[in-house]
Design brief:
With 650 residues, the protein is an alpha+beta fold. It is built from 20 helices and 10 strands.
């Protein structure tokens, strides 16, 4: 009964979203407002049906209704209750329902909050958004029904994938999936604008705001994924250039470029056609990311929901891109730039270079992801592209981006002179070089980390310079320093919110430099009572324990950590083995400080108590996780409505 009700909700969402697409287009074509309003209501009802289907499936997990095949395949009676939410999207069918539900809600909010100046374009935007909802609903109705019934009903389920039994899985997959599918919202505003025939920049502000929201969600999703990999996969790192990791990064790159570039269109009326292309590329990359997650041809530890559905998503990607580019070239003559680039030596030129760097990184990453498939097709041999390729090829481009992040705010609009630019760069460059010299004196000799330190320091100095100069100007008007700084930020929220995000990027950069170039690893076999010293840390193996769990075996080591003569406390690394999945899930013991992480893994326990330990000392990793809240804070400031600013300053 409950399965039938859930399936009916999905079928109704198909009918309602199809009606919304057709009704919106016909209503706009015939200028029939009643039909447009009715179609919009149909979209809201489609969202309600998908949310209801989601509630029904979650209820089936809570009540352990193993008559539903998806519930039986992704949960069991021994599963801990807090994992119910994770089990909901642990497989293809549930994750598709999550994607459809969350996107339909976001699409409804986007339609509901569409500004009045986009009234003409709103039916077309609605049609694009509900077209995406229709695709997901159709896939579930025909190929991946989450409510398929199972006969006979098993007494227990198979259980959840052990790699998903981690607190980070409560947030990481939903954030990443929401970020990927959410790129369709600014894309829909762009395409809706083109289809409506509007020739101005009416769509820009709505697209910018939604792009910022989606960017923040996707960024946090990527960071949480890094944290998950760092704590559960047991290899001491946070980013391995895994294909599905890259699939999440791919749309992030052009979306970041779009957020920068759309500010130029908003301020100067430039880059109109370029911005349409950027958001189209971002949506294409997002669809490719979903294709990889649905069973793309390249295997990955992150593909928790693989199936043959990947090729359905590939066809959806191709159809979307063909449609978008057809509309783009059809309307190309209607959105020429009102202004042209006066000089490459300008802030507009810096933004354009920023865009090109993001796209180069994106397409080089994409080539690395698809190369194993290309080599298999044309050479008959699967050639895997690993971390060395990405580090060597992309490292200089990332370095250039960070340098440009420091230089860009110093360059005036329209054009500048070499002398003025040099004068503005003296302080940031001087500070960067000074810090590099200090780092060299302290023992940093390799060129790559030195260049990274210079780039990050220059970017940091550029941000601080902007804040200091702006605050001083307000102080001269009679304000105290604290209020001057607060009002400086609040009176230009997009700009200074962006600087806060840039500060997070600088933190991320220093963290990557420290952990990538100066991490220490030591593998050792110890018996209880033995100890080992790794870069100032002493690890003493105290004891171990084995505990039988309903779904597997848990083995834990107890170690005592010291730094010099200072006792840091006890740590409990270990792992759990799941016989039903023939899989072990590592649990690293991590002690984090702003300076470095002590990271301990234990496995291969013997009957005499002997165990194999892998110990890492990873510098500056904590700053990577601190950067996440800065991204959120900066985005919220940039999003805060300007009308609130006007009232507060009145």
């Amino acid at each position: 009964m409950i399965a039938d009700l859930g399936h009916i909700c999905i079928l109704l969402s198909v009918a309602l979203s199809a009606y919304s697409v057709v009704g919106s287009l016909l209503g706009a074509k015939l200028s029939t407002q009643q039909l447009i309003d009715s179609a919009r209501l149909g979209g809201y009802l489609a969202s309600a049906m998908l949310v209801l289907a989601t509630a029904i499936l979650i209820a089936a997990f809570v009540t352990q209704d193993f008559s539903i095949q998806y519930v039986a395949e992704n949960s069991s009676t021994t599963m801990e209750p807090w994992l119910t939410w994770v089990a909901f999207y642990a497989g293809n069918e549930g994750s598709l329902l999550f994607l459809a539900s969350i996107f339909s809600v976001l699409a409804g909010l986007a339609i509901l909050t569409t500004p009045s100046e986009l009234t003409t374009a709103r039916p077309y935007t609605t049609a694009v958004l509900l077209g995406v909802v229709l695709f997901f609903a159709l896939v579930m109705a025909t190929l991946a029904n989450p409510f398929t019934e199972l006969f006979p009903v098993p007494p227990d389920g198979r259980g959840i994938n052990p790699l998903l039994t981690h607190p980070g899985m409560l947030v990481h997959p939903p954030m990443l999936m929401t970020g990927l599918i959410g790129v369709a919202i600014p894309f829909a505003f762009a395409i809706g604008h083109l289809l409506s025939g509007q020739v101005g920049d009416e769509w820009v502000e709505a697209a910018r705001r939604w792009a910022l929201v989606v960017w923040a969600i996707l960024t946090i999703g990527l960071l949480l994924g890094s944290w998950w990999a760092y704590t559960i996969l047991g290899w001491g790192g946070y980013w391995a250039w895994d294909p599905v990791e890259n699939a999440g990064l791919l749309p992030w790159l052009p979306l970041t470029a779009f957020i920068h570039s759309i500010m130029i269109q908003r301020r100067r009326g430039m880059f109109r056609s370029w911005n349409i292309l950027l958001i189209t590329i971002a949506w294409g990359m997002a669809m490719y990311g979903m294709f990889m997650n649905r069973g793309g041809p390249v295997p990955s530890v992150h593909s928790f929901a693989q199936s043959a559905l990947g090729w359905v998503f590939l066809l959806f990607l191709a159809g979307n891109l063909l449609f978008a580019f057809a509309v783009f070239f059809w309307r190309y003559g209607t959105f020429r730039n009102s202004l042209r680039l006066v000089s490459p030596l300008s802030r507009e030129g810096a933004f354009l270079l920023n865009n090109f760097l993001f796209l180069i990184i994106g397409f080089v990453t994409l080539w690395g992801v698809v190369y194993p498939l290309v080599s298999d097709v044309f050479q008959g041999v699967v050639v895997t592209v690993g971390r060395p390729y990405y580090d060597v090829v992309l490292g200089p481009f990332f370095l250039a981006l960070v340098v440009l992040m420091g230089i860009g705010p110093l360059v005036p609009w329209r054009q500048t002179t070499s002398r003025l630019l040099v004068n503005r760069m003296i302080v940031p460059v001087g500070i960067g070089v000074s810090v590099a010299i200090l780092a060299a004196v302290l023992g940093v000799r390799a060129l790559a980390p030195l260049l990274g330190v210079v780039a990050c320091t220059m970017a940091l100095a550029g941000i601080v310079r902007e804040w200091v100069l702006g605050t001083r100007i307000r102080v001269k008007r009679g304000e105290n320093y604290f209020m001057a700084f607060i009002r400086l930020v609040m009176n230009n929220r997009p700009r200074y919110g962006g600087y806060i995000v840039h500060l997070g990027i600088v933190m991320l950069g220093f963290s990557v430099i420290g952990s990538a170039f100066y991490s220490t690893q030591k593998d050792v076999t110890m018996l209880p009572g033995q100890q080992v010293t790794v870069r100032g840390f002493t690890i003493e193996y105290v004891s171990n324990s084995t505990e039988a769990k309903p779904d597997g075996i848990k083995q834990t080591a107890l170690v005592r950590a010291k730094s010099g003569e200072k006792i840091l406390g006890l740590m409990t690394p270990g792992y759990r083995f799941y016989p039903d999945f023939s899989m072990a899930a590592t649990r690293a013991a991590i002690r984090s400080t702003p300076r470095e992480d002590l990271y301990v893994i234990a496995n291969e326990f013997s009957e005499n108590g002997q165990a194999v330990f892998r110990i890492y000392v990873n510098p500056l990793v904590l700053w990577m996780w601190i950067a996440g809240p800065l991204f959120v804070i900066g985005t919220l400031i940039a999003l805060w409505p300007e009308r609130v600013r006007a009232r507060s300053s009145a």
